[in-house]
Design a protein that fits this description.
heterodimer, A: about 325 residues, mainly beta, 4-stranded antiparallel sheet, 30 strands, B: about 350 residues, alpha/beta, Rossmann fold, Hypothetical Protein Yjia, Chain: A,domain 2, 2 domains, 7-stranded parallel sheet, 5-stranded antiparallel sheet, 10 helices, WD repeat (chain A)
């Protein structure tokens, strides 16, 4: 039976996950909480807007205070970037110790040695993601995405698709780029030939994306079920129907997180419920009963035994499925 | 007892943060009004979103600067635009809702007010957590004629406004004022006009207006569209407040601004329609078709419709192609069951609107 260790905090949880198996929770009020032999907390920002886990080593956060902060498993933190008076709208971690953040129309890459490379765009840089290999940064923007190569000279690659793109992710094999849009849709590009992939039909905006083990499926929120697009073939999900898991009639999926090794996805809902569903037979297991407030974020630990979750009303915690 | 019926609606409304949008050219007094709002808070705390820092500082703890960014939606509708920057900032602000009780958006002088207003209707997340309270246009009485000559935005801002604060009265003669006022009325016959100096308008007539609240919209406007009684030509219509705002003028309520005939720098006009009871089976397909086809030209629409056999007033309001309608309240005893509808826009075909509206009569 799964067991839930709740951690009731005060405020919207932006990111929940693990650093070296220590549960971390980043809240919109700028506090970062960790469960390391008891509940500890630190004030990282005056207002925290975005967060990304850099593997299991650092939690990157960006805030209303214009700061980009990296927090390590032991709680020690350092400020890696600062853009006074601007909101940091997105942060991302990349290979070779590189990180990136977005402030207004600029995206900044900070290499491991501290070198900064700034990329300006005609419109706001809304979402950021690094490719899994090499050093390539994707920026989601109005009417498409831009790919930068911070270590190389030359022009960036522009991927065009009409509409506002607000989030972005690379497939783990680096062959596909997928954006979430202001309208209720995902858009994808096969990077080898620029072929488009339209993934539509969502009743709400897609705010949570998660790749399954080996990048075989891309799970998404934004519907009464978790929607999983098949990425096993060389053309991605084109012409194929997605899997729908954990369908509920009365609420919406607000967060998804695929298990690191098994074909299982954790599904969080607008009413606070968390289920786990298996791809092969759609079997569901209840991990957490409905409570107040939507689930906003979930992440597994590296061994796939524990799931950290956070919600918009501050309802956070850790679910252990090993028992 | 009647409280029980309204309680659920009231509690939903309370959960949504009201948003006041201030439009107007640089120098029209926006920032002065904003600072007055912020310094007379009576315990209310505001989050302020600005698109440019003007020459006057804004005195507030929570100010967010955002770059104006218009997003067209991929639904084939050219007028379905939202402000991407507002979507982001409002989403960020609403994650820490305890910090403020209301939001004021100060737009640039050149801002198109339509995407600003539409953001609060089209984006589901923004709409769930906030409600647009009113669009307030600051107008510099002295410089408006010049602005109208050289920009479409000045006109749009007036056309979109629920409230026009006609500012800097101390700089104009009574004749200039009368002209400016007639021009504003010609562009927007439904807006309330508050005349003032140094942005000194009473704050309670700017804040908490519920101008987009279907339960309240038009309810406080006993003279809504009354000016149409006279069938005078389109650019000489009076609005709901005309009997309030004409103190000191020698004309009465239903008057022509006969002295003003040189309104030629405006392209926005309004069409006011009125009829008796309507047939809902004809009216709804008609209004949907009109807003679909003419939506890009319709800046605002407002109306009260009497449906045959319906004991309740039906109110509707729209911005371009977005339209909302709802039953408002029962018709009162002795109240004439009259349908009234006003379109504010460009290149409106008045004859067609009038004819097709009439065809919806019950």
């Amino acid at each position: 039976m799964p067991t839930v260790a709740p951690l009731d905090l005060d405020g919207h949880c932006v990111a929940a996950g693990f650093l070296q198996d220590i549960p971390f929770f980043a809240l919109a009020d700028g506090t970062i909480h960790r469960l390391d032999n008891g509940h500890r907390q630190a004030q990282a920002h005056d207002g925290l807007l975005c967060a990304a886990f850099d593997g299991a080593t650092r939690l990157l956060t960006g805030g209303e205070d214009g700061k980009v902060v990296a927090t390590r498993a032991g709680g020690e933190s350092e400020t890696l970037g600062e853009t006074p008076r601007k909101w940091i709208g997105a942060v991302a971690s990349g290979p070779q110790g590189a990180i990136a953040w977005a402030a207004g129309r600029n995206a900044t890459v900070r290499l491991a040695d501290g070198t900064l490379k700034e990329f300006a765009h005609p419109r706001t840089a809304e979402g950021l993601a690094f490719a899994p290999k090499g050093l390539r940064l994707a920026v989601a923007r109005y009417n498409g995405a831009t790919l930068h190569f911070p270590n190389a000279q030359g022009k960036p690659t522009e991927l065009e698709w009409g509409g506002a793109h607000t989030g972005v992710t690379f497939s783990p094999d680096g062959n596909f780029l997928v954006t979430a849009m202001q309208e209720n849709a995902l858009h994808g590009w096969k990077l080898a030939d620029g072929k488009h992939m339209r993934m539509t039909g969502y009743p709400a905006k897609v705010k949570s994306l998660s790749w399954s083990a080996k990048g075989r499926w891309l799970a998404s929120s934004g519907a009464p079920a978790a929607i999983l697009w098949p990425f096993q073939g060389k053309d991605g999900p084109m012409g194929k129907a997605p899997l729908e898991l954990g369908t509920r009639g009365d609420t919406m999926v607000t967060a998804v997180s695929c298990h690191p090794s098994d074909d299982i996805v954790a599904i969080g809902y607008a009413d606070g419920m968390v289920l786990a569903a298996r791809f092969t037979d759609s079997r569901e297991v209840l991990l957490r009963r409905a409570g107040k407030g939507a689930v906003t974020t979930m992440n597994w630990d590296s061994g796939g035994q524990r799931l950290a979750f956070g919600g918009e009303e501050g309802q956070c915690g850790v679910i252990d499925i090993s028992a | 007892m009647s409280q029980t019926a309204t309680a659920p609606a009231a509690s939903t409304a309370a959960a949504q943060i009201p948003v006041t949008v201030l439009t107007g050219y640089l120098g029209s007094g926006k920032t002065t009004l904003l600072n007055r709002i912020l310094s007379n808070t009576q315990g209310k705390r505001y989050a302020v979103i600005v698109n440019e820092f003007g020459e006057i500082g804004i005195d507030n703890d929570l100010i967010v600067e955002s770059d104006e960014e218009i997003y067209e939606m991929n639904n084939g509708c050219v007028c379905c635009t939202v402000r991407g920057d507002l979507v982001r900032v409002v989403e960020g602000l609403m994650r820490r809702p305890g910090r403020f009780d209301a939001i004021v958006v100060e737009t640039t002088g050149l801002a198109d007010p339509a995407p600003v207003a539409q953001t609060f209707f089209m984006d589901e997340d923004v709409r769930a957590k906030t409600r647009l309270d009113a669009v307030v246009a600051l107008v510099d009485a002295k410089h408006l004629p010049l602005r109208l000559k050289d920009s479409k935005e000045a006109e749009d801002q007036i056309a979109f406004a629920d409230l026009v604060v006609l500012n800097k009265l101390d700089l104009v003669t009574p004749e200039e004022l009368a002209k400016v006022e007639a021009t504003i009325r010609a562009i927007n016959p439904t807006a309330r006009i508050h005349k003032t100096e140094r942005s000194g308008v009473a704050l309670e007539s700017v804040l908490d207006q519920g101008a987009f609240d279907l339960k309240r919209v038009l309810e406080d406007d006993p003279h809504f569209l009354d000016a149409d009684d006279h069938h005078h030509d389109h650019d000489h219509e009076c609005g709901p407040d005309c009997n309030h705002d004409h103190h000191g003028h020698d004309h009465g309520h239903h008057h022509h601004h006969g002295e003003v005939s040189d309104i030629h720098d405006i392209s926005v006009r309004s069409v006011s329609l009125r009829a008796g009871e309507m047939d809902p089976k004809k009216f709804f397909p008609w209004i949907e078709k009109i807003t679909q086809i003419d939506g890009p030209n319709i800046l605002r629409l407002k109306g009260i419709i009497a449906f045959k056999g319906d004991p309740d007033r039906y109110v509707l309001q729209g911005v371009h192609m977005i339209m909302e309608g709802d039953h408002q309240r029962p018709w009162k005893d002795g109240e004439a069951h009259e349908s009234r509808l006003v379109f504010i826009g460009r290149e409106l075909d008045e004859e067609k609107l009038r004819r097709t509206f009439d065809a919806c009569r019950a």
